[in-house]
Design brief:
The chain is an alpha/beta fold. Helix content is 41%, strand content 13%.
Length: 150
């Protein structure tokens, strides 16, 4: 399973982080950009967050529009459309705990992709944006590796 060859095809994926403001919306935008025609993609947070303009800037560099994202929680998503996903990818420890709790009532595979919080980086605007680029590029790599063939 480490090489991904015996994983079943993913038809729907949910990315979860703490507040659906940085990591999970970035992952959602990237996955939709590359696999949106073949995989249903959503994102949510454990808690309510606010949209982060650095996410929009980092995605814009790849030609992906992230400006319309509205942060939502797992509760919001469950109320709006349910939580019927093949795969739940958690991007923070808090999100991973919530994802594992969900699998008590939802039949989904859960994968934990520890992803740094770029807001912890201080410095110039460019240094801060570099932290967001690092998160973006790391997620981009993992998404393309994991969803390839879906």
């Amino acid at each position: 399973m480490a090489d991904g060859t015996d994983r079943k095809r993913v038809q729907s994926v949910l990315f979860v982080c703490a507040m659906n403001a940085i990591r999970s919306p970035m992952a959602e935008a990237l996955a939709r950009h590359y696999y949106g025609k073949s995989v249903y993609v959503q994102s949510a947070g454990v808690r309510q967050g606010e949209r982060d303009p650095f996410v929009t800037a980092a995605l814009d560099e790849l030609g992906i529009d992230g400006s319309k994202h509205k942060p939502r929680t797992l509760v919001d998503l469950e109320e709006w459309e349910g939580l019927n996903f093949d795969l739940i990818v958690s991007l923070s420890p808090e999100a991973h705990h919530a994802a594992l709790e969900l699998t008590r009532t939802v039949a989904a595979d859960v994968e934990y992709w520890p992803t740094a919080d770029p807001t912890l980086v201080q410095g110039t605007r460019e240094q801060m944006l570099d932290a967001y680029r690092d998160v973006r590029d790391g997620l981009n790599y993992r998404i393309r590796l994991r969803l390839k063939g879906s």
